[in-house]
Structures are given as C-alpha cells and as structure tokens.
Amino acid sequence: MYTILWRKDSRASRRRFVMHQFHKERLKGILMFRRLAVPTFVLLLAALAGAQQKPAETHPVLPSEDTVNAFLQATFGYDSSLSWKILSIKPSEAEGLAEVDVVVNGGQGSQEQKFYVTPDSKHAVIGDIMPFGSHPYSEFQKTLENGINGPTRGPAGAPVTVVEFSDLQCPHCKDAQPTINQLMTKRQNVRVVFQNFPLPMHDWAAKAAAYADCVGRASNDAFWKFIDSVYGAQSDMTASNADEKLTGLADAAGVKGADMAACAAKPETTTRIEHSKKLATGLGVNSTPTFFINGRKLPALPYDVLERMVDFAARQGQ
Known about the structure:
By secondary structure, the protein is of the alpha+beta class. The protein folds into three domains: 1-53; 65-126, Nuclear Transport Factor 2, Chain: A; 138-316, Glutaredoxin (3-Layer(aba) Sandwich), CATH 3.40.30.10. It has helices spanning 2-52, 65-76, 138-147, 171-186, 205-218, 220-232, 242-253, 257-264, 267-282, 303-316, and strands at 83-91, 98-106, 109-117, 124-126, 152-153, 160-166, 190-196, 290-293, 296-298. The strands form two sheets. Strands 5-7-6-8-9 form a five-stranded mixed beta sheet, with helices on both faces. A four-stranded antiparallel beta sheet has the order 1-2-3-4, covered by helices on one side. The longest helix has 51 residues, at 2-52.
C-alpha cells in the first residue's frame, strides 16, 4: 500500500513538476515578450510622433552687402549712368531663399528691384513669388480687408475691390490714374481703395502722402480731386516748394489747405502712412503703382485688360 501510494504520489509530483516547469517557461516567454514589446512600442510611438512633427525651418545664409554689390557691378557696370542702393537683405517668405531689395537709378528715373538668392548662393531669381493653391489670393484679400485705411470710391459691398498702392511723385502712377478713373465711370460693381506708398528715392512723396491722407479724412470727394491735381503738378513741384503747392491744391480741392498742412505734420498722420507702407511691404509691394484685384497682385494694366480682370473677379466671387 505504501509503495503504491508513493508511486502515485511520484507520478502526481512529476505531473505537478512538469506543469510547474511549463508555466514557468510560459511566464518567462510572456515576460520576454513584454520586455521586447514595450521598447518596440515606445520606439514606434516615437517614430510616429517624429513623423507628425513639422520639419525644422531652415534659415538661409544671407549674402553680404559686398557680395550683392559685386553682383550688381557685374550685372549693371556696363552702363556708367546706372547706380544702385541696397535697401534690405533678409530671409524670404519662401523658405530657404534670401530676399534682396535694391533701387536702381538711371537716366529715366529710379526703379526698385527685388531678387532672391538660392540656398547655395549660386543663383539669383528675379520676379515675384506668387501665392499658390485652389484659392491663391484669399489670404492677401483677407490681409487687405483687415489693413486698408485709405479713401474709397464705389459701393462698400461691391463684389470686386481694387486696392491701389501709389506714390504721388511717381510718373507711372500719374499715367495709371486715368485708367482707374475710367474704370470707376464705367463699372458700378467695383470699390477702389487708395493706399499711400511713397518711395524713399522721391524727395517730396512722403509729404504729399501726408497731405493726401489728411485731405482724405477731411473729405472723400476732395481727396480724388486732390490726387488728380497733384499728379498734374508733378513737373512743377520740388522738395522746397512742396508745402506751398500742396496747400494750394488742397484749397482748390475743397478743403482748407492750412488745416491740411497742420494735419500733415502730426505724428498721427505719419503713423497712418507707415501703416500703409507696412501693409504694402508685407504683401510684397516694392514698386508703384501696384494693384490688388480681390487680393491678386498686378502691375498697372491697359484699360481693356483691367476691365476683363475686374469682370473675371466679379464672376469668381459669385
């Protein structure tokens, strides 16, 4: 009896031992899996998080003024009548590119020019960087609607808004103004907004912009007469007689010239002009006149082209 019980117990013990070993090995396997799985899961999460992070922005190495001047000399040095001045060297809105703004002076006047330098500093790209996408001009349109502070013509709820950045001393702006006047006569579905953008190379443009801002706040109707008369007097106006001329033109437009002169000298007026200039440069404006038709940036256009662009913008907005 003892022997039988011992044998039974032995078999049971062996079974228990075998089961114990089985569970022990199984537990080791589970623990091993967990030891392997947890770091793998952590690494997977880290990889996913890394994939979702935006790539770090790269800042271009800006060319030096000496390098830019050497490039301009190699490009324009053939003509001794040309000179230039570097206005700024800064990172472009397009990542990786450096943006260089210069003004080139010649026998036919001054022109601001912008170009971009590639990250390897081996190429310059001349032209505008345009917004892209299904609605490429909507952001510019929104920026303008939130930033414009100049006099307007046309209905406030018009489907098309033309924003004009101009310099009253600029002969090209003078040439473009009759086209805008014609548009406003023929099209009733357009709002035109005038924004001052006096260029630094013009010696009385900033003063004229200050007078224009003051006239516009005093009388919207007088403003449009005033700027037409300033354009007409461009050839007779100088930095030394600008105050006298502008005061007289303000009187002729229907507002009190002496009041406009006092207003033009106020810090508040300077702040308003600087706001308009900052709005322009933020939208890539570097020459005058520059127009925005529902946010689309354009140079001065012949009347038939301008009319087609306005009609197209009106249809797009419906």
